[in-house]
Design brief:
Chain A has about 325 residues and is α+β, with helices and mostly antiparallel strands. Chain A has ten helices and eight strands. In chain A, the strands form two sheets. In chain A, strands 3-8-4-5-6-7 form a six-stranded antiparallel β-sheet, with helices on both faces. A two-stranded antiparallel sheet of chain A has the order 1-2. The chains are: A alpha+beta (about 325), B mainly alpha (about 130).
């Protein structure tokens, strides 16, 4: 069976799944809109945790939060379920497909065979849509891929029951009820308010302060950790900022696109100006990545070079702090 | 980032015949999307991360040959895992998995536990005991 489903590629998996599922249900909502209303933008350093043997920073909200907030703010209801055994997880999936209901799934990337080997890490917060079944093959719309693809029953079970941090446990989700008209205006304002609150939070690991904390840590790495480890850490930061799914510049460009779209929806020209400013901040993140890559390309660990990229980050932290204060005033 | 500045370097997505979507500004200052084949700063970071894993695997292999660790650690590195990930796949406490890294303890493992590890790594028990 195959459900009529339009696959549209997106930058980030979670926004993409939500945007595609919404469009399937007759609501044309762009990826940046989902991201902005769901307060997806963030910066957070997560101390004590190591992934791929390096410290973890994130440029976006926790998996699942974006859709939950988006749903609450525009007035749709979603159903989420996790399972302790693969059989009932599969039964629930098939049941929905039989009802012509495409569903979102949370999966692990490591066994996702259509990804290039280089991208297959133990990352469990990937999202995709299943929109049908053809014999033993599930029809998959993975929002970060250009084309739709398929996975066998066994392959799908493996990625739905990947283990480790954020284990998906067969997590399945889909919208169940919709209002007649989406409450976009109030949703946009709520979304922006929360992002401003988080990005200017008075804690050293969150938002603009988090960026500055990382800048401080970077200065210490070459002496404290040695050239090899320091380079590895720096490379990981750039990967989390730029790797597939961020739309470039650690989600800052998607957010700028959201501000531009939002300025039209709520008729606020100030947001359009601020969108340009956010684009500039995104460009600064890209410059940081370029300069950081010069360090780990040459495998050097000169203090000056590290201090230079740390200075850049500190400046980004300051401009983000100022930006979100302005954004808060603008709405 | 302007639309014409979206990098089109050689990336690692080629093998999957896909490009990734990025957001950029067109000539009228409006946001639009553009596909990117790759960007050197992150391709280098990713390649370095993979080299790093290869080095870890090679080191683990040497340590198995020198009887400093058990093949479990080698296969863990080969599958890009670390201790918390492996322990959640086999369903054992981390300290137990760590114990199984010791060649002496590994020798004493019963069939059932060996099978658990072999299943996780998708290999036979024979392959688990003797690394290639």
């Amino acid at each position: 069976m195959q459900i009529e489903f339009t696959h549209k590629q997106s930058a980030h998996c979670e926004n993409g799944v939500v945007s595609n599922l919404m469009r399937h249900n007759g609501f044309d909502i762009s990826e940046p809109m989902v991201f902005g209303i769901g307060s997806g933008l963030l910066f957070c350093y997560i101390p004590f945790l190591k992934v791929n043997h390096a410290p973890v920073v994130t440029y976006r909200a926790m998996p699942g939060f974006i859709f939950n907030r988006f749903a609450k703010r525009v007035g749709i209801k979603i159903k989420r379920e996790k399972f302790s055994n693969p059989e009932s997880a599969k039964a629930r999936l098939d049941e929905n497909l039989n009802k012509n209901n495409p569903v979102g799934l949370q999966v692990g990337v490591y066994n996702l065979l259509y990804f290039p080997d280089e991208y297959r890490f133990h990352f469990n917060a990937h999202n995709l849509v299943v929109y049908g079944k053809d014999g033993d093959n599930y029809l998959i719309s993975d929002p970060v891929m250009e084309q739709v693809t398929t996975l066998t029953e066994k392959q799908l079970e493996k990625v739905r029951f990947a283990k480790g941090a954020f284990a998906p446990k067969g997590h399945i989700y889909y919208p169940t009820s919709f209002p007649e008209k989406l409450e976009l205006e109030s949703a946009i304002i709520k979304g922006i308010e929360q992002t401003c609150r988080e990005m200017t939070a008075p804690f050293p690991i969150v938002g603009a302060n988090g960026v500055k904390t990382i800048a401080k840590l970077i200065r210490k790495w070459p002496k404290k950790k040695g050239a090899k480890v320091a380079n590895h850490y720096l490379g990981q930061i750039v990967r989390m900022q730029e790797e597939i799914g961020t739309g470039g510049g650690g989600f800052r460009y998607i957010y700028a696109a959201f501000l531009q779209e939002a300025s039209q929806v709520i008729g606020n020209d100030k947001l359009k100006e601020l969108s340009k400013e956010m684009t500039q901040i995104g460009d600064n993140w890209r410059d940081f990545a370029v300069n950081a890559s010069r360090i780990y390309k040459n495998r050097s660990a000169q203090d000056d070079a590290y201090n230079k990229v740390a200075d850049e980050l500190e400046a980004i932290g300051n401009s983000e702090a100022a930006f979100f204060k302005k954004l808060k005033k603008a709405i | 980032m302007k639309k014409e500045e979206v990098p089109q370097d050689k990336g690692l997505l080629d093998s999957a015949q896909t490009k990734e979507l990025t957001y950029a500004v067109d000539e009228n200052g409006e946001y639009t999307t553009e596909l990117s084949s790759g960007w050197d700063p992150k391709t280098i970071a990713l390649s370095n991360a993979i080299k790093d894993i290869e080095e870890r695997v090679a080191l683990a292999k040497k340590r198995v040959e020198n009887k400093e660790t058990s093949p479990i650690e080698y296969y863990m590195e080969l599958h890009k895992m670390d201790l918390p990930i492996l322990s959640s796949y086999v369903g054992l406490w981390q300290w137990r998995v760590k114990r199984h890294f010791k060649p002496k303890n590994f020798q004493k493992l019963n069939q059932k536990t060996l099978e658990k590890y072999a299943d996780v790594f998708d290999i036979s028990i024979e392959e688990l005991k003797h690394i290639p």
